[in-house]
Amino acid sequence: MDEILRQIPPAILVYAVLIPVLAFGLMAYFAILRPMLKKRSQKPTALSAPAPANLTPSAPVRASALDDLPDLDLLLAAPAPVAPAPVNPNLPRVLGEATVTLVSGQTVRAREELAILRDPSDGRLLVQLPGAAFKSFASAPASKEAFSRLMTELAKSLSQPDDAPAPAPVSTPTPPPAPVAPPPPLTVAAPPPPMAAANDGPLPGDLPKYRDMQSAEYKGRGLFGQPKFAFQPIPDLDIPSSIEAYLQYRLAQTPGYGGRPWHVRAAPGGGVRIEVNGQFFEAVSDITDPDARAFIQNAIQEWQERQ
Hints:
Layout: H1 2-7, H2 10-41, H3 72-76, E1 97-101, E2 107-111, E3 115-118, E4 125-129, E5 132-134, H4 141-158, E6 216-221, E7 227-231, H5 239-253, E8 262-266, E9 272-276, E10 279-281, H6 290-306
Antiparallel strand pairs: 1-2, 3-4, 4-5, 6-7, 8-9, 9-10
Helix pairs in contact: 5-6
């Protein structure tokens, strides 16, 4: 037996002794020491003991007691400013009141009687009175008279000192009523004169016929004996200019209509617009002159049938 033990290496003997000792130590730690340490860590201490319920007003309050209170900074914060409602640019402008400061330093509350504006499209001035705006008083004599009274009163008021009483409004004598004339007899508007018969040949404003451009000119043969042809280039179509040319041709050919200021123009954004006596319209149905509306409508319809 001694001979057998001497032949075993010493390291194996050491492992044979240490392995049982380590196994016993681990079992003792997990079975006894670890549960004891866990129970000891769960025992309440004096620092974590709850505060007494009968707190006096002079006793200091811990920070943990203030955790459930609301945030006073949020309660006392000023409300966020409300953004003003956006102004709709499509709504008509109305005359109102405003607080103004005069050159003398006096601040007064004033009411608008009129407004003078400028149209940037043509540079003309326009006047806005209560209820309507005017670029011309040609068809509104009553508004023209009211505007003249305001201008006369304004000239008198500006020539006086600031503390002078307001001048009396200028009044114009009312003319006697004109005698009422009997209404004219009803007459039916005559239809527009018939247009001259269209010629079979080409007329001003005719668009190019693409069927006439299908023929090609023979130019010989190429490098490998292939025939070469030259085709006519396709021109660009100018619809507004074509209708304008045909309209002017029809005005010149119709007795009594030559030289009338009726035109078909190209619109800036594409399409066409119609000019009648210096006024522009987007469609034929918008033309206020019935004679021009009927004539231009017939001319455009005839131009379409020719294409």
